[in-house]
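Example (one chain per record):
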Amino acid sequence: MVNGIDSSEGTDRFRMLVEAVQDYAIYMLDTHGIVRSWNSGAQLIKGYQADEVLGKHFGMFFRAEDVAAGLPAKELADALAHGRTEEEGWRVRKDGTTFWANIVVTPIYGPEGDLRGFTKVTRDMTERRRLKELENSWQRMNEFIAMLAHELRNPLAPIRNAVSILQMEPAPSPTLRSCRDMIDRQLSHLTRLIDDLLDAGRLTSGKIRIRPQRVSFNAVAAQAAEACRPLMEARLHKFSLELPSEELWVHADATRLAQVIQNLLGNAAKFTPDRGSIALAAWLEGKRLKVEVRDNGEGFEPQAAQRLFELFTQGDGARPIREGGLGIGLSLARSLVEMHGGSMTARSEGVGKGSVFSFELPGADVVQRPAHAPGPALVLVVDDNRDAADSLSELLRLLGYRVSAAYDGETALALAMREPPLAVFLDLNMPGTSGRDVLAALREMPACQAAHVTAVSGYGLEDEKAGRANFSGFDARLQKPVELTALRSVLTSAAFPEQHTMAST
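Predicted structure:
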C-alpha cells in the first residue's frame, strides 16, 4: 500500500492514463528495442494498431536510409550515455508517408539498477516545421526584396534627378514635354511598386515601425500631392487642396503620413474617370486632425467598404488587372493610421457616385505659417555614382544653390575643409571612406559642425531596423530616387533649422 492505494492499482491507473493520451505516441521498448506497449496516440500518429507493432523492432518507424546509417541503435545508445536523449527527425507512418517528429527516449532501470528497457515519446511536429520553414522563407524573401529594392533605387535616382531638371526647363517643346511627363509618371509608378512590395512583407510580418515627431501636415500634404500630380494630370483631373489658413501640426511619422495621403490620392486617381474631381481636405477638431480624400469616381456599394481595406484587394477584384497596382495601398494606409492611434473609414453612396476616404489622428494643433525661404548657399553632394551626383548637383544649381560634387569620401572632406557647406547630401554606401566615415569627420571639423547632413540611400527606415543601414547622427534622410518636394523640404530645414524637426522620406 502507498498512501492508502494499492501499488498495482496505481500502476493500472498510470497505464490507463498513458494509453488514453492522443497527442503523443508513448510506448515501451525492451533492452533490444522491441516494442512492448502501444498507446492510442501512437496509433493515431503512426497509423499502426497495437497488434501490428507489438513484438517488432522499433526500427520499422525509421526511413530505410536511416536504418542503414544505424540511427535506431544510436538513439538508444545516446539515451544510455546521457540518461535521456531528445532529437528531431523524419519518421515513417504505416502508409509509407513521412512526418517530422520530436522524439524523447529515456532508459528505465529496475530497483537494482539493471536496465529494463526504454520509454519513447514521439510528437508529430510536421505542421510546426512547415510553419517555421515558411517563416524562414518569408524572412529570406524579405531580405532579398530589400536588397533588390536598394539596387533598383540606385539607378532610379539619376533618372528622377534628370526628370526634375527637365521639368525646370522654361520652354520645352511639346514633344519633349510629352516624353518628360511620360517618364515622370512611369518612374513614379515604378517607385511606388517597389515601396508597396517592400511594405507588403513588413505589414504581414508586423515589422513596420513608426517614428512620430511634431511635423507640419501642410508640408506633408503638399509632398504627397506633388507625388501624385503626374497621375492626376495625365487623366486631366481637377485637384483641390483644402487647408485652413493656419499651419496644421501633428505628432506623426512624416514619411508614413505622406505615404498614407499618397496612397489615398493614388487610389482616387485610379478610379476617377478622366476630367473628374479629387479633393484633399484637412481641418482640426479639438486636438484631432481630420483628413478627407474625396472623388467623383467609380464609387462602390456601401457594404463593400470594409473589404476595400483587405490586403491584395482592389474593389471588385478585376481592378488590379485593369488599373494596375498590387492591392496593398489601402490596407497599408489604414494600418499606418491605426499605428498612430487614429482610425480610417471609407464611404460611398453606391457605384458611380464617388467615394470618400477619411482618417483622423490625435495630437494636432495649429501655428502661424513660417515665412522663410532659403538663400544662396554652398551645398556639397557626395556619391560614388557619378550620374547620381552630377544630376543632383545640376538640380540644386537650378534651385539657386552653389554646388560642389565629390565622388568619394576623401575628396568630399577636402572640399568641406576648403569651404564649409550649408548642407551635405551624402551617399551611405561608398567604397573606401564610407558615408558614415565622412559624417564622423565632418562632425569633428569646427567649421562644419553646423552643416545640415542628409543621408541619401537606396535603403529605407525598415532596413535600418534590420541592421542593413544606420542613419543615426544625420539631420535628415532621403530615399533614392529623391522627389523634388522632399529635396526642397530638406533644404528649407537646412536654412532654418529652428523651424523644423528631422525630415525623412
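Caption: Confidence is low (pLDDT under 50) at residues 1-7, 316-323, 369-375, 496-505.
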